[in-house]
UniProtKB/TrEMBL annotation:
Its EC number is 3.5.4.2. GO terms for molecular function: adenine deaminase activity; zinc ion binding. PANTHER family: ADENINE DEAMINASE. The record marks H220 as: Important for catalytic activity. Its cofactor is Zn(2+). InterPro entries: A_deaminase_dom, ADE, Ado/ade_deaminase, Metal_Hydrolase. Substrate binds at D278. This is Adenine deaminase. Binds 1 zinc ion per subunit. Belongs to the metallo-dependent hydrolases superfamily. Adenosine and AMP deaminases family. Adenine deaminase type 2 subfamily.
């Protein structure tokens, strides 16, 4: 009865959101127009209709194409500002936001343009919206480790504008070990470390992200349930999983929401959190993800709602002092 209202209004953190995945078709068209870019789709409706994915790669193809309209610092600002306003509406107090610099620098957009626009939105969000936010730079795992090192090198003059690094894009065939050395370097630099693992890839990739990359948090990680020893370890070591339910259903990781394992992860004692991943592409922002999972999974009630919100703050990279005000 009152659960939907509790879910909507409870304070929460979002830890798995790709800022390029928050770019709504309306903004894609607006930016294409102002930047003089010709799109492959004649209308907003036809672009949205193309958002019918069969797996991760079919999504990534459209997602990277959409990001092609981003040209100026203003574009990056507008994208992030729009997301932060949506986050505020969902009672998100804190967001840790992924961005993919290689998607842009490979098109000739300077790293300074990307980080300049995103950082300005993050600062303004803190001041004007009261939403705390920080940035996490993701390496594209379909590219080489050498290219990841080059991306890191370009980013280092802006070291104070992001708090960590992650690993995203196509998982299959791009195991964690491919990025062992660049993650070791990031660790020396004092950056936080996260990695997508166990979304489409096997449970082994989750273990390797922990053992080889020293990831502090696993993005997705839902395939851990295929390995009982790993589940026990994740629970014992309180390794957070940033689970993205609507994403998982749209990309056919689970056939329908009723099949999602979020309830089982919590029952196993894992510090799971709920997140939106790419909200413009997967049918909803953070509160939509909470609403869809709680509607489909009968084992989720008020206790689990509270647990998930609490997990989201505990799993965040904010200082322990600041966390105390939230949990
Ligand atoms: C992503 Cl759902 C997902 N998985 C891997 N990489 C990504 N980049 C943006 N969304
Ligand atoms: Zn993701």
């Amino acid at each position: 009865r009152e659960l939907p209202s509790i879910l909507n209004r409870m304070p929460k953190a979002e830890l798995h959101i790709h800022i390029e995945g928050s770019l709504e078709p309306e903004l894609i068209f607006e930016m294409a127009q102002r930047n003089g870019i010709k799109l492959d789709y004649p209308s907003i409706e036809e672009l949205r209709a193309a958002y019918a994915f069969t797996d991760l790669q079919s999504f990534l193809d459209i997602y990277y194409a959409g990001a092609g309209v981003l040209q100026t610092e203003e574009d990056f600002f507008d994208m992030a500002w729009s997301y932060l306003n949506r986050a505020k509406a969902d009672h998100v107090l804190h967001a840790e936001i992924f961005f993919d610099p290689q998607t842009h620098t490979s098109r000739g957009i300077p790293f300074a343009t990307v980080i300049g626009g995103l950082d300005r939105a993050v600062r303004r969000g803190r001041e004007e919206l009261g939403v705390s936010a920080s940035l996490i730079l993701c390496f594209l795992r379909h590219l080489s480790e050498e290219e990841a090192f080059a991306a890191l090198e370009e980013a280092l003059p802006y070291r104070d504008r992001f708090i960590g690094v992650g690993l995203d894009s196509g998982e299959r065939g791009n195991p964690p070990e491919k990025f062992a050395r660049v993650f070791a370097r990031c660790r020396e630099l004092g950056l936080h470390l996260v990695a997508h693992a166990g979304e489409e890839g096997p449970a082994d990739y989750i273990r390797d992200a922990l053992d080889i990359l020293k990831a502090e948090r696993i993005d997705h990680g839902v395939r851990c349930l295929e390995d009982a020893d790993l589940v026990a370890r994740l629970a014992r070591e309180r390794v957070p999983l940033t689970v993205c339910p609507l994403s998982n259903v749209k990309l056919a990781v689970f056939h329908e929401m009723h099949d999602h394992n979020l309830g089982r992860l919590l029952q196993a004692g894992i510090a799971a959190t709920v997140n939106s991943d790419d909200p413009a592409y997967f049918g909803g922002y953070l509160n939509d993800n909470y609403a869809a999972t709680f509607a489909a999974l009968p084992e989720l009630g008020a206790r689990e709602a509270y647990q998930l919100a609490r997990n989201s703050f505990e799993a965040s990279f904010v200082a322990e002092e600041e966390k105390k005000g939230w949990v």
